[in-house]
Amino acid sequence: MPHLQFEINKKIKNKTKEKFINEVMTIFSKVMDTGTDHIAISIREYDKYSLSIGRADIKNGICLMDLDIREGRTIEKRRELVLLYMDLVKKFFKIKKRNQYTTLTEHKGEDFHLVEKYLSSWEKGEDPLA
């Protein structure tokens, strides 16, 4: 169950968040070759001066992404996901790509739990809740 976390230093309208979340799920499902029912997404909004990246002016928009995913995807797939999310953050939240920073953390499938079960290791074309 990926947990895709987006921390931003501005307030976002609910309608924008709803559209963003839908696109985040669609992109993850397509790039990572999996379903969507197990995807968890957090959007955390902070005050302007509550986030920073050394290379960015603290007065500008900042986005920190922490993507907890199951292990097994190639570096190419992980990089594709990150770049697509950077495009999405720029599109929806108007934050320059230079002011975004992403950390990916990989876990064994058994580290992700839903009420029905824990997930197995990732397999291409899977439905993890089947």
Would you write up a description of this structure?
Strands 2-1-3-4 form a four-stranded mixed β-sheet, with helices on one face. With 130 residues, the chain is α/β, with parallel strands linked by helices. Helix 1 (14-32) runs antiparallel to helix 2 (75-93). Strand 1 (3-8), helix 1 (14-32) and strand 2 form a beta-alpha-beta unit. The protein is 29% helix and 22% strand. The protein is elongated, with a radius of gyration of 15 Å. It has a single domain (3-111), classed as Macrophage Migration Inhibitory Factor (2-Layer Sandwich), CATH 3.30.429.10. It starts with a strand and ends in a 23-residue tail after the last strand.
Please provide a brief summary of the model:
With 130 residues, the protein is an alpha/beta fold.
Which labels suit this protein?
elongated; 130 residues; Macrophage Migration Inhibitory Factor; alpha/beta; 22% strand; four-stranded mixed β-sheet
- Figure out the total of helices: 2
Strand order of the largest sheet: 2-1-3-4
Q: What does the main sheet amount to?
A: 4 strands, mixed
Overall pLDDT confidence: 90
Number of strands: 4
CATH class: Alpha Beta
| Uncertain residue ranges | none
CATH topology: Macrophage Migration Inhibitory Factor
Rg result: 15 Å
Q: By CATH's scheme, which homologous superfamily applies? A: Macrophage Migration Inhibitory Factor
- CATH architecture group name: 2-Layer Sandwich
Quote the beta fraction. 15-25%
Helix content: 25-40%
